[in-house]
Design goal:
The protein folds into 3 domains: 6-160; 207-300; 305-457, Heat Shock Protein 90 (2-Layer Sandwich), CATH 3.30.565. The two termini are 34 Å apart. The protein is rod-shaped and about 160 Å long. The chain has helices at 6-54, 154-206, 221-268, 272-299, 309-320, 324-327, 345-362, 414-424; strands at 56-58, 64-66, 82-88, 91-94, 116-121, 127-136, 145-153, 307-308, 330-334, 340-341, 366-374, 377-384, 428-433, 439-445. It is an alpha+beta fold.
């Protein structure tokens, strides 16, 4: 089943309803108009019938005639569409419009002067609307019973009805267009809150706001409330999961320290192989603990989190300068103020800290931190003047636990954790050798938009 939009479905249903309603209205108006013109025609025929009755007289030979026929010229024109006829026994008196045709009037009927409406065949093959009346003439006209009839061609009535429909159609079409446009505006205005909901959900996902808010119509407000409650529940679940992961990791660190201590005692006792085996197992466990702590923190990142690049990098440099590796390096920071990444400050600190520590460990004398705003977000570049990395090992170093220097301290998790943090935030981490020597670590992150409230979203 094709999934049409609500806007289209409501608009199509409204337009179809308008067209159907106006079509029914047209049929009803046409029926009413035809009934009206038939009543009007019957009233005119009643007048014509009275004129035929009033015009009856005797000629000098004593024969019954219509001395003063109705004056409508259609009675005098053959097949003119308007006819009268008088049946007096075997004598039939008729209008010139009938020519040689005789209306098939009933043979007998109540002689009470009551006018009866009937449908008769016409001289040209059509149908006639006829009024018929039987009366007894006064003695001066012979005192006999006569039947009088006046008829009108129904084709004239049909033509008038069709003319009315033709005249009515443009106005109905104009009315249909107006109602359809009005329905479209009504649907657009009525569905606008749903578009607002969509925009605010997108704003929540992008980190511009944290909740949908409550400024919605009464029909949409329950949905917004349930979504906000679901977001709050998810945040609470993530926070609890993060806390449980942290508790588990911290609970494992004490046994790990005990293992490291036991490894040291074995090494002092001369059991190098056992000590090394225990140390390797402890290192593996330690890496897993650090990895899960990092994942838990990244998973709990608030959608609206943001970190100022200049502030975080300045804080990291102030710490790294106090370390043995950092004290020998000439640090140069060119990160402008106002650059904000859509990332929690603690996550940025860990990712950037790992990159800065790596640069301090391998640089000869100088490390530069630079930042700028680009089409993909905000970018931090950590450049050192060290020996660089063989090209075939650049991708390998992004793997968890991979190290070039296996003699020095460290677990090999720094670059992989930084890459995980960047990926989870929707960014990238790229390592590349510099042409003049050294390594560039390019950390690109989505830029944090200006924070706004749900009401203004």
């Amino acid at each position: 089943m094709r999934r049409w939009s609500l806007h289209f479905r409501l608009f199509a249903a409204g337009a179809a309803s308008v067209i159907a309603a106006l079509a029914l209205a047209a049929l009803g108006l046409s029926f009413l108009f035809n009934a009206h013109i038939e009543r009007a025609a019957a009233a005119d025929l009643q007048v014509q019938l009275d004129q035929v009755l009033a015009g009856l007289d005797l000629d000098p030979g004593g024969a019954l005639i219509v001395a003063t026929p109705p004056g409508d010229p259609r009675f005098k024109r053959p097949l003119g569409g308007l006819y009268w006829q008088v049946n007096a026994g075997a004598t039939v008196i008729r209008s010139r419009s009938l020519w040689d045709y005789t209306l098939p009037l009933p043979a007998s009927g109540p002689v009470d002067g009551i006018v009866r409406r009937m449908d008769l065949p016409g001289p040209a093959g059509g149908r006639l609307l006829a009024l018929e009346r039987q009366v007894r003439l006064p003695p001066r006209l012979g005192g006999q019973t006569v039947a009088l009839a006046v008829a009108l061609d129904r084709g004239d009535l049909t033509a008038e009805g069709q003319s009315f429909v033709r005249d009515m159609t443009p106005y109905l079409a104009l009315l249909a267009g107006f109602l359809i446009v009005a329905g479209w505006l009504q649907v657009a205005v009525g569905l606008r809150p749903l578009a607002t909901v969509g925009a605010r959900v997108a704003a929540i996902r992008s980190g511009e706001t944290a909740r949908l808010g409550a400024d919605f119509p009464a029909e949409v407000l329950p949905l917004a409330g349930e979504v906000d409650a679901l977001i709050a529940m998810r945040e609470a679940d993530v926070e609890r999961a993060r806390a449980r992961a942290a508790d588990l990791a911290h609970g494992l660190k004490t046994p790990l320290q005990a293992l490291y201590g036991e490894s040291g005692r074995l090494r002092e006792a001369g059991e190098e192989a056992a000590a090394e085996a225990i140390a390797q197992i402890a290192d593996v466990m330690h890496r897993h603990v650090d990895r899960e702590l990092t994942r838990a923190r990244i998973a709990a990142r608030a959608p609206s989190a943001q970190a100022d690049l200049s502030t975080v990098s300045g804080r990291i440099l102030s710490v790294i300068r106090r370390t043995p590796d950092g004290a020998r390096i000439d640090w140069n920071q060119t990160v402008p103020d106002g650059l904000a990444a859509r990332l929690d400050a603690a996550d940025l600190t860990e990712a950037l800290g790992a990159l800065v520590e790596n640069a301090a460990r391998h640089a000869r004398s100088r490390v530069t931190l630079s930042g700028h705003r680009g089409p993909d977000g905000v970018t931090l570049t950590i450049s050192d003047d060290g020996p660089g990395i063989p090209e075939d090992l650049l991708d390998h170093l992004m793997a968890r636990g991979a190290r070039l220097d296996t003699e020095g301290p460290g677990t090999g998790l720094g670059l992989s954790i930084a890459a995980e943090i960047a990926t989870a935030a929707g960014g990238t981490l790229v390592l590349r050798n510099r042409a003049a020597g050294g390594l560039d670590a390019v950390l690109t992150l989505p830029e944090a938009p200006p924070h706004r409230s749900a009401a203004s979203a």
